[in-house]
């Protein structure tokens, strides 16, 4: 149970590396006496609750060059890990091309916390509200392994999260533009939809314990496109919530491709989410509630895509 | 007429304490510092139930910057506190009964050093079996937490023969209701500054709802006379009942006396959660029967209340719940029993609504179930069984008569929202574009007692005086914890006497100056100030005018009080300012009154005399995909006599209902094996602004019988007691399910959506 | 290790601007802004309540935007302009404060400075926010007394008041 915490009493030393390599070396030399810090908002709650001890050294990542900006890269949008959640929340390009990321961030913590907290920190926590939305756009992450920058899909990054996460130094997030989005403007979008009669859809849901500023119980994203005959052309489904590491449901996605959205298929979606989604139980919500909720939300979005 | 700024005209006033609050200039007692000053901290038990084998403080005492490390051996007087029955140790000697139990208090030169010192204290425990379930605590083989056993208090009230009556009933409804361990969550956690004076006296700057009670309790602990202690207790950053009992004061006081230095204490939120009071979790089993016409024949209730480790006001809360599970209805036969049980859970105690919140949720649930079984409108059913104006109170005691019940009932019947319910029933209005969203409307009804009730000293009173500088001083022993007490007092002085705001100086919350006006609790302070001013009006006005007449050379009868001073009745000029009157008056001008809160002529302990009536209609939206409920709209009709301060009245009902919304949908201080699992506001969630987007309409019903001499009834609590059952009724309409447990669990309300069953979405709209 | 990364020291001189005045505060790099404001500068209008950013009582403006001073560490404030409730009150009542007074957007007042700071941050960047935008901007400020009714009315009034003042 610990002592009667009266706020945080210890004052760690703070290091301000200018490069990823410096940060990495600091982490190597201080080991478990140190922790990387971006905004520090999640760390503060962990220290206060006694979940984590206050370390002797904080390695501040905010001074590392190039991590504080959002820019358009060759294949997509590149978001530096040190960009604040609020800067992402209000960024016009994110809003336009990756709207469910905007929606996820709107529902993340409160604006004042989002101004200190960073997108990199949200991802590195493995349980951030942004993750299902980023997974929904097939985001990639760039991280530093002590020698070089490596790029992998966010989905892969999360799969190995349990093994390595304190050692990994997250640098950037890349959100690939849709193939046709690299073309300019609404006109093309319009043309495309007229020609192919496909219907794009995307949605993000966070179910928490109150209407705002709440820890998540379930986070869910679904995006894709339907043919005129309501066949699934493309689909991504991602789920998270609570202390669970967010995941894509790739198996289910494959099963849905080419299928027509009808009652049978929606039942299949429901049943498969109940099987594939592995949320964690806590004091506030059971596993079965989380599964049912996630299954309802995803199925309802598919129903809406087909019927509205 | 709805209560709002527009309808209130010039009676809508800016609060006298507003400027300091919006600028941050107001110094709360936890903002105070002194030089030099030490920081006080308390070491609390690691275990919810354990025997203390040893307490070693040597290492802590030797730590740098540490000036005092106190244990039970260092308490000069009574090592216990508790408003009603002092059984909570200040510093535990041999046993700990909950995780908030205090063992050691330290004072050091910084918060960090005090924290380090606490970590150097070594305590050896023998861990004992934990009682976390009050039902199990009553079993014969349960460990006994107190000498008198685990049954802290029992209540009973019976009339007729319920067993026989149930046989006659056409319909009987049986249900068990559960309510959560709600936390007050005042934004300012407990704390203050404790300053030993050169004259040997101690000044305590620490929030409380009854300064004189703190003074008495602290004098008993410190073994000093009452005069040795001064309590300064306002302003307060929220209390809701939670700061009525002592919290940090014994430790601050002991450390200040021991070290001779000023001591600052300010609980972290975690410590506040751990040590502080919560609302009593209750289990209420009810069996209620009606005849075929819908008349209540029998009502049987069994209340089980988890009071935690020590008494504080647990017995009084149970008395209140016992009265309010009977409530505003007439029954031929009654059998109500209650028991409040000691456990090793957190401390339960006083909290806005005082047991009414739990009782009314359950009672109104019974009424809705019975009406539905009868096929009657729930509102007509209530009317049929409601106490009438001349009827006795719940304990068959005489009460101050009003038409409140009838009038709030009628207000709801006529309300737009209630009429919308009928339309919903007839599916006459479209619901939503999302067919999984469902709407429901429900209502509930309350009579809520004010004052402490029969058998508990309930003093009241105050003083008016003309100060040397010409200010009219209103001196009361009440506290301002946000409810708007000062605003109400100022408004009464202006409206009843004719003073201007600038003429007035209000003095509260300082035991050296104010008379003991009793506790600022139980929705009583405004009523008692109103009554005090009624009693003071003639003598004080007479004194002012008589002195003024002597100075001005005219008859007192020719004069009257005005803003700024005294004038003649024949014109509206001020002829003698209050400052001039003060400087020229030969005799001091002062009037004091003391009396007791009116009580019912009955022997029944806890029975009330004055009641506030309220009825609430609420509209909710249920998302059947997630099971989550949103409150869309509320309508409150409140019969509490005259509106003293419109802004304050509205704020009390809105604020109380927000607390009730949390109680119904969100809040529970979850405990596991005697430990709190919700230790800060990241897990203990109270409503945010986004949870409160719905419109809240408040309709005050001011009517009182002509001969009524009691004036305003209380409104401090009533806003918080009626919403829960109204939401439950609305959820019933939306979902077809009866809620029995709060907060409502979303999982319980989830439904398999139509698109999975093959039903058409359009069928559902 | 390079020059740059050797900046960790047990003491840290925080240079920043608080309420328009340049300040140098000798502290530690990880000290919390809340503590510095209340204990070092004795600006007690900024309140302590939860210590983890979950209540908003300690809200201050950093470069004009509301942040929780209990979460912000000293090194994160270096070179920044910070405004506390005292700074907002400097030239008399701000129209937002006036609106809170007139509408009764407070009771115990303990959350009020933080609430007003958040409203100030909102309206300075978005002078006519929608209901949803107001709710989002104030969702990190917990008020236990009012049920937010008075606060919402005060914000509406403040928006009108600021429009008129222009």
Automatic annotation (TrEMBL), chain A:
UniProt entry keywords in alphabetical sequence: FAD, Flavoprotein, Oxidoreductase
Domain of life: Bacteria
Residue ranges annotated for the FAD-binding PCMH-type domain, each copy included: 6-180
EC id: 1.2.7.4
One Gene Ontology MF term: anaerobic carbon-monoxide dehydrogenase activity
PANTHER family: XANTHINE DEHYDROGENASE SUBUNIT C-RELATED
Protein name (Swiss-Prot/TrEMBL): Carbon-monoxide dehydrogenase medium subunit
Organism from which the protein derives: Paenibacillus endophyticus
UniProtKB/TrEMBL annotation, chain B:
Domain Aldehyde oxidase/xanthine dehydrogenase a/b hammerhead: start-end pairs: 23-129
Superkingdom of the source species: Bacteria
Molecular function via GO: iron ion binding; oxidoreductase activity
InterPro entries xrefs: Ald_Oxase/Xan_DH_a/b, Ald_Oxase/Xan_DH_a/b_sf, Ald_Oxase/xanthine_DH-like, AldOxase/xan_DH_MoCoBD1, AldOxase/xan_DH_MoCoBD2, AldOxase/xan_DH_Mopterin-bd_sf, Xanthine_dehydrogenase_dsu
Stretches of the chain forming a coiled coil according to its record: none
Protein name from the UniProt record: Xanthine dehydrogenase D subunit
Phylogenetic lineage: Bacteria, Bacillati, Bacillota, Bacilli, Bacillales
From TrEMBL, chain C:
Listed EC numbers: 1.2.7.4
Protein name: Carbon-monoxide dehydrogenase small subunit
Ranges for domain 2Fe-2S ferredoxin-type: 12-88
UniProt xrefs under Pfam families: Fer2, Fer2_2
Molecular function, one GO term: anaerobic carbon-monoxide dehydrogenase activity
PROSITE patterns to which the protein is assigned, alphabetical: 2FE2S_FER_1 (PS00197), 2FE2S_FER_2 (PS51085)
Alphabetically ordered keywords of this record: 2Fe-2S, Iron, Iron-sulfur, Metal-binding, Oxidoreductase
């Amino acid at each position: 149970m610990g002592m009667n915490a009266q706020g945080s009493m210890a004052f760690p030393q703070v290091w301000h590396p200018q490069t990823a390599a410096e940060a990495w070396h600091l982490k190597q030399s201080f080991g478990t006496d140190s922790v990387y810090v971006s905004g520090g908002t999640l760390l503060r709650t962990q220290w206060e609750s006694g979940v984590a001890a206050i370390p002797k050294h904080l390695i501040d990542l905010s001074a590392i060059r190039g991590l504080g900006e959002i820019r358009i890269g060759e294949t997509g949008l590149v978001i530096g890990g040190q960009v604040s959640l609020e800067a992402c929340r209000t960024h016009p390009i994110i809003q336009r091309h990756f709207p469910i990321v905007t929606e996820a961030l709107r529902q993340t913590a409160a604006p004042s916390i989002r101004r200190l907290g960073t997108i990199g920190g949200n991802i590195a926590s493995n349980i951030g509200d942004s993750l299902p939305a980023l997974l929904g756009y097939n985001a990639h992450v760039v991280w530093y392994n002590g020698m070089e920058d490596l790029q992998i899909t966010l989905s892969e990054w999360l799969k190995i999260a349990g093994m390595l996460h304190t050692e990994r130094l997250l640098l950037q997030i890349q959100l690939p533009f849709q193939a046709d989005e690299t073309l300019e403007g609404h006109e093309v979008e319009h043309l495309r939809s007229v020609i192919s009669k496909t219907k794009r859809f995307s949605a993000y849901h966070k179910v928490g314990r109150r209407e705002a500023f709440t820890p998540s119980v379930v986070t869910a994203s679904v995006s894709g496109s339907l043919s005129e005959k309501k066949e699934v052309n493309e689909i991504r489904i991602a789920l998270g919530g609570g202390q669970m590491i967010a995941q894509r449901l790739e198996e289910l996605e494959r099963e849905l491709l080419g299928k027509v959205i009808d009652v049978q298929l929606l039942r299949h979606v429901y049943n498969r989410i109940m099987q594939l989604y592995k949320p964690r139980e806590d004091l506030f919500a059971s596993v079965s509630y989380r599964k049912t909720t996630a299954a309802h939300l995803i199925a309802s979005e598919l129903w809406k895509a087909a019927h509205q | 007429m709805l209560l709002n700024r527009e309808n209130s005209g010039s009676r809508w006033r800016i609060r006298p304490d507003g400027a300091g609050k919006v600028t941050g200039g107001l110094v709360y007692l936890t903002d105070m510092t002194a030089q030099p000053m030490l920081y006080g901290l308390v070491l609390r038990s690691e275990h919810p139930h354990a025997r203390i084998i040893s307490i070693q403080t040597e290492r802590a005492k030797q730590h740098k910057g540490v000036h005092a490390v106190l244990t039970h051996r260092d308490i000069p007087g009574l090592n216990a506190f508790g408003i009603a029955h002092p059984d909570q140790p200040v510093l535990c000697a041999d046993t700990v009964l909950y995780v908030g139990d205090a063992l050691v208090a330290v004072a050091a030169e910084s918060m960090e050093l005090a924290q380090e010192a606490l970590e150097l204290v070594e305590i050896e425990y023998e861990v004992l079996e934990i009682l976390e379930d009050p039902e199990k605590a009553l079993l014969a083989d349960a460990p006994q937490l107190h000498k008198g056993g685990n049954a802290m208090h029992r209540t009973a009230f019976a009339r007729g023969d319920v067993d026989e009556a149930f046989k006659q009933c056409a319909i009987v409804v049986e249900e068990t209701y559960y309510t959560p361990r709600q936390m007050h969550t005042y934004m300012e956690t407990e704390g203050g500054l404790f300053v030993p004076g050169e004259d040997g006296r101690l000044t305590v700057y620490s929030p409380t709802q009854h300064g004189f009670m703190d003074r008495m309790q602290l004098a008993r602990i410190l073994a000093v006379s009452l005069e040795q202690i001064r309590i300064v207790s306002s302003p307060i950053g929220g209390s809701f009942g939670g700061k009525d009992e002592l919290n940090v004061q014994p430790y601050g006081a002991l450390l200040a006396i021991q070290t001779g230095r000023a001591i600052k204490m300010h609980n972290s939120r975690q410590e506040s959660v751990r040590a502080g009071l919560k609302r009593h979790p209750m289990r209420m089993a009810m069996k209620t029967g009606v005849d075929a016409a819908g008349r209540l024949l029998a009502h049987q209730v069994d209340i089980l209340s988890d009071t935690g480790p020590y008494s504080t006001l647990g017995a009084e809360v149970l008395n209140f719940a016992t009265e309010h599970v009977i409530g505003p209805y007439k029954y031929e036969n009654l059998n109500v029993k209650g028991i409040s049980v000691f456990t090793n859970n957190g401390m339960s105690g006083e909290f806005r609504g005082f047991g009414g919140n739990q009782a009314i949720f359950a009672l109104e649930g019974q009424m809705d179930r019975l009406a539905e079984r009868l096929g009657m409108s729930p509102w007509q059913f209530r009317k049929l069984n409601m106490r009438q104006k001349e009827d006795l109170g719940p304990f068959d005691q005489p009460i101050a008569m009003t038409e409140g019940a009838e009038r709030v009932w009628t207000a709801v019947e006529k309300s737009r929202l209630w009429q919308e319910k009928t339309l919903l029933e007839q599916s006459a209005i479209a619901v939503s574009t999302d067919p999984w969203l469902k709407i429901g409307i429900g209502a509930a009804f309350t009579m809520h007692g004010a004052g402490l009730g029969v058998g508990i000293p309930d003093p009241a009173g105050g003083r008016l005086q003309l100060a040397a500088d010409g200010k009219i001083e209103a001196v009361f022993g009440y506290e301002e914890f946000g409810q708007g007490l000062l605003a109400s007092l100022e408004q009464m002085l202006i409206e009843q006497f004719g003073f201007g705001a600038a003429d007035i100086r209000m003095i509260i919350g300082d035991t050296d100056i104010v008379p003991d006006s009793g506790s600022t609790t139980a929705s009583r302070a405004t009523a008692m100030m109103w009554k005090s001013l009624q009693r003071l009006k003639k003598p004080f006005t007479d004194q002012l005018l008589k002195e003024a007449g002597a100075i001005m050379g005219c008859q007192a009868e020719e004069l009257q009080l005005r803003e700024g001073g005294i004038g003649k009745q024949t014109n509206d000029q001020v002829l003698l300012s209050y400052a001039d009157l003060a400087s020229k008056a030969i005799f001091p001008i002062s009037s004091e009154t003391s009396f007791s809160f009116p009580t019912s002529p009955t022997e029944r302990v806890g029975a009330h005399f004055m009641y506030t009536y309220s009825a609430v209609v609420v509209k909710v939206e249920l998302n059947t995909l997630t099971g989550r409920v949103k409150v869309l709209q509320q309508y409150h009709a409140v019969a509490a006599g005259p509106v003293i301060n419109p802004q304050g009245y509205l704020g009390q009902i809105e604020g109380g209902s927000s607390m009730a919304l949390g109680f119904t949908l969100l809040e529970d201080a979850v405990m596991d094996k005697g430990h709190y699992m919700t230790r800060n506001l990241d897990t203990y969630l109270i409503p945010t602004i986004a949870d409160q987007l719905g419109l809240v309409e408040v309709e005050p019903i001011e009517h009182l019988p002509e001969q009524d001499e009691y004036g305003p009834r209380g409104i401090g609590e009533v806003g918080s007691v009626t919403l829960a059952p109204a939401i439950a009724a609305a959820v019933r309409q939306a979902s077809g399910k009866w809620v029995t447990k709060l907060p409502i669990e979303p999982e319980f309300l989830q439904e398999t959506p139509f698109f999975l069953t093959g039903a058409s979405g359009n069928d559902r709209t | 290790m390079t020059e740059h990364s050797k900046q960790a020291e047990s003491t840290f001189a925080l240079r920043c601007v608080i309420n328009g005045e340049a300040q140098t505060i000798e502290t530690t790099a990880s000290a919390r802004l809340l503590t510095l404001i209340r204990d070092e500068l004795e600006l007690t209008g900024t309140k302590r309540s939860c210590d983890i950013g979950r209540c908003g009582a300690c809200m201050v403006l950093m470069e004009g935007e509301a942040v929780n001073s209990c979460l912000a560490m000293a090194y994160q404030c270096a070179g920044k302009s910070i405004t506390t409730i005292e700074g907002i009150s400097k030239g008399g009542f701000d129209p937002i404060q006036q609106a809170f007074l007139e509408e009764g957007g407070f009771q115990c007042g303990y959350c009020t400075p933080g609430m007003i700071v958040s409203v100030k941050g909102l309206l300075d960047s978005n002078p006519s926010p929608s209901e949803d935008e107001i709710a989002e901007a104030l969702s990190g400020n917990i008020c236990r007394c009012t049920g937010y009714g008075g606060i919402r009315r005060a914000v509406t009034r403040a928006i009108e008041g600021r429009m008129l003042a222009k």
